[in-house]
Specification:
It contains eight helices and seven strands. It is α+β, with helices and mostly antiparallel strands and about 240 residues long. Helix 5 runs antiparallel to helix 6. This is MRG domain-containing protein.
Length: about 240
Amino acid sequence: MAPKRDHRYEVNDKVLCKHGLFFYEAKITDVEEEGGEMIYTVHYQGWHKRYDERIPQSQCPEMFLPLTEANIAKAKADIQEASNGSRASTPSDRAGNHIPSTVSPHDGGETRVSGVDSLCSCAMYLRDFFDVVLNYQLLYKPEKPQYQVLAKREQEKFEVDICFLQDGGPLRPEMIRPSKYYGLAHLLRLLVKLPAFLRLNASTDRDLDSKIACHLDFISFLMQNAPFVSDIDLDYKVQGG
């Protein structure tokens, strides 16, 4: 049940706060009054403080939930449910440019994923997955010849017996990094298939929850910023043109 609109919070109070699509454990770190309204600064537990937010009193009923076992369980279940992709197309009502952690009861021993480490891990995981599966899973039949031409051109640069380091990882001579050449349109094809890929490759339930939350927030970020990251006139070219 959501808190009453006039419920007042104090510094160090803990709540579940909505960020992006889901609720996460947060703590009130500052309380101040502006224009006759209370403003609460919330810090998401286990995240970098750059993701702290200021929540007006008027928004508390929709942004906060009491930190109860039942609410924690529901919040975690919502994240888990997203693993089947049922919410992947749901737009966020707030910008989603952040790195979430899984929701668990606060028992004095936090084992949450570091925000920076999670960001780097998710970004590298997504890029490497894209590079590996593009040729086999993401290209339409008419796109295959173009890829083969590109692959042949790249292979000619690596006609040696050793592997080179390029763009962050060791490459076999016959391997290219499609992420250097293919953009948002093909990335979206990967995101559609991602829930199934994640379930097959996650080492633990916690690892799965963390990856799902990270990538759903990335999807929310893309949806919020679509006009800035996509341009159909630049992203597509008429075949033979």
